[in-house]
Design a protein that fits this description.
six-stranded mixed β-sheet; putative 2-phosphosulfolactate phosphatase; single chain; binds (2R)-3-sulfolactic acid
Length: 248
């Protein structure tokens, strides 16, 4: 298995073969929200980069069984049911519902890898299930793609990519040099190691963490900084639609 880390969707190779497994990461907050919603019993999460496409696709769904999540710049989009806070995805709200979600960067990251054979999402809160999947399935090539912020590097996404690399290394079967497919994978694991005992502080250093703190969303940061808190693995069932992997 070779793990390749890409800091942003823009850094993903535009041509050439797709990996056996691609993993989208948006710790703050899309992939934390997706994991939380599926863990709380949502029937599925359909991701859109475009808000109008989301509204069109969700129109025919029974309003009692659909939740529209829309976020831009950290705030809820007017007319949507929820913003992108994972803390809003409680079982009483999301159980049995199809979630339609569009966020500034996270859903774009998912869109850029949706043609890979297997597509997963990772956040700190479900890192362990992603690692378990990789160890069990042993895909030959894996891309871990950070969402970044509008094309720029995000500390928290690369830190989480490093947490996944570290989790695979902890199984003890391979060395970092054998596992890393690019230099970014090595840098990511070093970043994770520097903050692993204080992930809240990693999120506070991140520019998007600071943006969310400015919106008084400290509890979201604290929640998203919990490592291995949820036993849920979001996996793409068909392009753009994620469900809970039954075996995890
Ligand atoms: O950029 C994104 O996709 C977001 O998840 C941003 S936010 O954390 O909801 O503000």
């Amino acid at each position: 298995m070779k793990l390749f880390v890409y800091h942003t969707p823009e850094a993903v190779p535009p041509t050439g073969p797709l990996p056996d497994c691609a993993i989208a990461v948006d710790v703050l907050r899309a992939t934390s929200t997706i994991a939380t919603a599926l863990n709380a019993g949502a029937a599925g999460v359909q991701a859109f980069s475009d808000l109008q496409n989301l509204l069109d696709a969700s129109e025919s769904w029974d309003p009692n069984h659909r939740i529209r999540i829309g976020e831009r710049g950290g705030k809820m989009v007017e007319g949507f049911d929820l913003g992108n806070s994972p803390l809003d995805c409680t079982p009483d709200r999301v159980k049995g519902a199809r979630i339609f979600i569009s966020t500034t960067n996270g859903t774009r990251a998912l869109a850029c890898i949706q043609s890979a054979k297997t597509v997963l999402t990772a956040a700190f809160i479900n890192r362990a299930t992603v690692v378990r999947y990789l160890l069990q399935q042993q895909p030959e090539t894996v891309w871990i793609v950070g969402s970044g912020w509008e094309g720029n590097f995000s500390l928290e996404d690369t830190g989480c990519a490093g947490a996944v690399v570290e989790g695979v290394l902890a199984a003890g079967a391979v060395s970092l040099d054998d596992l890393a497919g690019n230099d970014e994978a090595v840098a990511a694991v070093m970043l994770y190691r520097s903050f692993q005992n204080d992930l809240v502080s990693l999120l506070k250093h991140a520019t998007h963490g600071q943006r969310l703190l400015g919106l008084k969303l400290y509890e979201d940061l604290e929640y998203c900084a919990q490592i291995d808190a949820l036993g849920v693995l979001p996996i793409q069932q068909e392009p753009g639609i994620l469900v809970k992997h039954e075996a995890f």
